[in-house]
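Two proteins follow. First one:
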Amino acid sequence: MKTIINQEIVRQIEMAALVLEKPRTYSELDLIEYFKVSAQTIRRDAEKLREMGVDIHSNRKTYEIFHCDLKTLNELICSYLALNKFDSIKNLNLIRKKYGQKTLRLFVNMLNAISKRHLIEILYNKNAHEINVRKNISPVSLMRAGRNIYLFAYEDDSHDKPRNFLLEKITDIKFTNIKSKIQHIRSMPEFFKTSWGVFTGGDIYDVKLRFSKEMGEEIKDKFYMETQQMHSEDNCFIITFKVNLSYEFISWVMGWGNLVEVLEPPLLKDIIIAKANEIINKYK
C-alpha cells in the first residue's frame, strides 16, 4: 500500500510540474497517455493537487495552474525529494546506536508532535563538558544539514527565535499530549532568510566581501542564501549578504583564506584577525 501511495504522490507532483512549465498545453488525453492511467485517475490527481494548494483546472480542454505560491512549491519539491529512494540519512547509524529499535518510532512521534503542535520533553547534552539539561520544547520541523539531522524547536513555549537540537545529543525524549502555547509560527523561509544554512545564531549584519576576478568567476552562479547579491568590478567580484554572524558563517569566510577580503562590517574583520592570530600562536 505504501508503494502505491508514493507512486500516486510522485505522479501528482510530476503532473503539476508539466502544467506549470507549459500551461494550456496538456489535455486530459495527453496526460492519460503520458502517465498511462485512466481519465478518472487524472481527475482525481487534479483534485488532490488542489487540496495541496495547487490551483489546477482544465481550461478549454487543457490544464492550467492559476496559483501555486512559494510555500506550496517548496512543499511539493521537498515531498518529491523525500520519495527519492536513493537519498539517505548520513548519520542514521549514530542515531540508531542511541535509540536502537525505537529509531523509526522516534521519527514518527516527532513528526506527529510537529503536526499536532504538542510539547516534547528532552534531556539535552549541549557539549561534553556540560551536565545534561532537561527542556520542554515546541517542535517546528526536522531539518537536515550536511550529515546531521536537527530538531528545530522553541524552548519552553518561548516566543523568541527557535533553535536547533542535534538528534544525537538528545539523551532522553518524552512525547506529551500537551498543546504548545505558540499559536503563530512563521514560515521556514522567514526563519532562515538571514541564516547561514540552518544555523540561526548571531546578530544580523550587512556583510561585504571582495573576491579576486578568477575566484569570483567560479562562484558567481552559486546560491548561498536569499539575501546575497554579487557584481563584478574592475578586477574583482563583490558579494554582499544580510546575514547572521554565526560561527558557521565566520568559519565559511575564514575557509577562503587569502582568496577573500572582508570589507564590511569592521566587527567581522576584527573577529577573523583575532581567530587568525590564535591559529598562528598555536603553532609558534
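Second one, unrelated to the first:
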Amino acid sequence: MWRKLKNLYHWSVSWAAHAYYGFPASKLKLIGITGTDGKTTTSSLIYHVLKSVGKKVSVITTVSATIGGVSQDTGFHVTTPDPHQIPKFLAQAVANGDEYMVFEITSHGLDQHRAAPLRFEVSGITNVTHEHLDYHKTMDKYIAAKAKLVSLSKLTFINADQVDIAQKLAKLSKGHKILTYGLAQSADINIDVSNKFNVVLESYNKYNFLLAYSICHHLGVLDDQFAHAIKSFLFPAGRMEVVYDEDITAIVDFAHTPNAIHEALSAIQTRFPDRRIVHVFGAAGKRDTSKRPEMGQSSASYATRVILTEEDYRNEDPQHIADMIAGGLRMGGFTFVAPDRMQSIRKNMTDKLYTFVADRSEAVRLAVDSAVPGDVIVLTGKAHETTLCRGKTEYPYSEHDALVKSIDQRKLTPK
C-alpha cells in the first residue's frame, strides 16, 4: 500500500512538472533505452550516430545529461532523474532546437511513473538480468517494470537471444508493436555488427551496437552513415576504460551486477588470455542482497586475485556485504588471506586468493602494489561516479584518480 501511494505521488508530481514546463516531451522525438546492463553505451552510441548524421539531439544517461552539447550532472548514483528534472532537461532540449532526445531509463523510473507523461518514438530493451530484487522482489515483477516502456512507445526492440525474457516481454506488450534483434536466426534483425561494420567488439557490446543500429536504422540512418559514425565513437567514461597499460594493465568498468561482471571479466580474459586478473569490487548497501554471492561466483570464474571493498555501503556494515560476496568466491575455489599476505605472496601465480580492505582507495593501492608484471587489474562498480556513500554522507571519490595515484606511487617504490 505504501509503495502504491508513493508511486501515485511520483505520478502526480511528474505530470505537474511537465505541465509547468509546457509539456516539452510533445515537441521532441523521444528514444528510450532500458535494461539491466548496457543502457549507457547504447544510449551514447545512438546519440553519437544521430549527431554525426546532422540531427539535433540531446541525451540523458547514467553519466550525465548532455543538452545542446553541454554536459550536466544528473545527481548522485542516478540514472533516471527525478520528476522535476526530466521536463527541465526536455525543455532545455526544446529551447536548443533539438528534434531528438535519447533517454536512458531504469525499472525504478518506470515503476514509479516518472516516465508517465512521456511517449517514445522508439525504444529498446538491452537485457534483463539479476538486479534490483530488493525493490521488485521477483524477476517477473522486474520484467513487468521494464515492459512498461513498451506501453509508452510506438515501437520497442527487444533482445531475442534472451528467449525466456523476450517471450515474457512479448506477452506483456498487450498489442503494442515490438521487433526483435539478436544474433539468433529467429530475430527480426540478426546482424553481426562486428562483421558488417568491421569493428572489434566484446560479445556484450555486439548486442549494444545491434540495438543502437536497429533504432538508428528505424529512424532513417543509412548503413554507410552508421559505419562512418561508429569510427569516431568514444565509449562513455568508466566503460572498459584502460587507464594504464605498461608493465601491468589497469581497467575501470561500471559492472555491478552478476551478469555485467561475468561479461566484463570474460571479455578481459579473451583479450588477455595468458594474464592473471586481479579484481577489486564490492556491492552497494541497502540494495539487492541476493545478487551478492552471484557477483562473487562471476568474479571467481575469471579472476585469480580478488580484493573486496566498499561500494556505497550506506548504513550496512561493509564487512557483512563482503562476507556475502565471499560466499560466491569460496564456491569458486577462493581462499581468504589477510591483506598483508596478499602482497607478500603476490608471486604465487596460481592459487585463487581473496581479501577484504574496507577503504576503497586502500584496496586499489593494495591491488597495484601486489601486482606483478603482466597482471590485469580490473576495478568494477564505481567507474564514472564521483562520490562514495558512507552512512548518509557522500564523500568525494574518483576511481580513476585513486588508480592513477596508486600507480604513480608504485613507480616510486623500490622493488
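SUMMARY FIELD: The chain has two domains: 2-230, 241-410. The longest strand covers residues 29-34.
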